[in-house]
Request: fold
Amino acid sequence: GENVEQHPSTLSVQEGDSAVIKCTYSDSASNYFPWYKQELGKRPQLIIDIRSNVGEKKDQRIAVTLNKTAKHFSLHITETQPEDSAVYFCAATTGSARQLTFGSGTQLTVLP
Amino acid sequence: DVKVTQSSRYLVKRTGEKVFLECVQDMDHENMFWYRQDPGLGLRLIYFSYDVKMKEKGDIPEGYSVSREKKERFSLILESASTNQTSMYLCASVGRRGTETKSSYEQYFGPGTRLTVT
Reply:
């Protein structure tokens, strides 16, 4: 089955700096890669996703890049703010199964 | 607005008890999932269901079973609770976003049930 590895497990940045979280996947058939944000005590929520026919997608301060050859994808957050502090999960799926394999999560802390 | 609810936020059970966790979604979604979330391990899939009375094992099904008698309701059952099943349990419902050519499967999560087995 699919295996998703996520790094780093913790990340601290100064407010206004950029943050990058990286994930690798094992199944070359995976074609959908979402990112979820989970604030303390709350449920995970989708923040951005990318399909395998696209190399990059951007939504305001967040962007995701995908390298199918290397089987890795990354989340980029620019101009970080304290409210970006949360646990971020990457995930991958082949789509036909509609089930996600999640990474182990990254605790992002934005220092004021 | 999308809504996924779980029967309890906090639950304390004794070893050997049978435990029922319920999840209800009001979006008419076919697909529902049960995960457990543990620090450093992310979200791990226990069981999922594509339709009523249909179920499939996820990555860690041992010690669990599920029931989907109605489309909106997906129950997770711990037949005989053990201390290593102490965890946060999250239910999710999958819908389709966007147009047919750009559809994706956004998972909507419930608030979670913090289960402690003593």
About this structure: Chain A has a mean pLDDT of 94.
